[in-house]
Write a structure and sequence with these properties.
It is a single chain. The chain has about 110 residues and is α+β, with helices and mostly antiparallel strands. The protein is built from three helices and four strands, in the order βαβαββα. The chain folds into two domains: about 10-65, no CATH class; about 70-105, no CATH class. It has helices spanning about 35-45, 70-75, 95-105; strands at about 10-20, 60-70, 85, 90. The strands form two sheets. The chain has a two-stranded antiparallel ribbon. Strands 3-4 form a two-stranded antiparallel sheet. The protein is globular and about 45 Å long.
């Protein structure tokens, strides 16, 4: 198995999302830190009258994450790349996604 240089490892840290446990996978979903998820529930869903937890089975789910920083990103003194938005697996970021990946690797 692939074993990256330990100086490039980041984690463990936690990511959160609101979901039914039966649909708790990480495919094409938004996650955030706990403060971000709570802000989203309070400021985006609640003012619209959308229940924060619509079905009895929905809850805030926590994922433990570790990953290796791409060398190009680490060389810039960062541990994470820029924020990229994805819809149905397609990058929709405000910058050119292809150029960002070519420049910084798969962050």
């Amino acid at each position: 198995p692939y074993a990256p240089d330990s100086s490039r490892l980041v984690g463990p840290f936690y990511m959160y999302r609101v979901a039914d446990p039966a649909h708790a996978d990480l495919a094409s979903i938004n996650t955030g830190n706990l403060a971000g998820v709570m802000w989203y529930l309070s400021n985006i869903l609640a003012p619209r009258g959308v229940p924060a937890v619509g079905a009895p089975d929905e809850r805030i789910i926590r994922f433990q994450v570790s990953y290796a920083v791409p060398e190009q990103v680490l060389n810039l003194g960062m541990h994470f790349g820029v924020r990229m938005a994805y819809d149905d697996g397609v990058c929709q970021g405000p910058v050119n996604c292809t150029t960002s990946y070519q420049t910084y690797g798969d962050f």
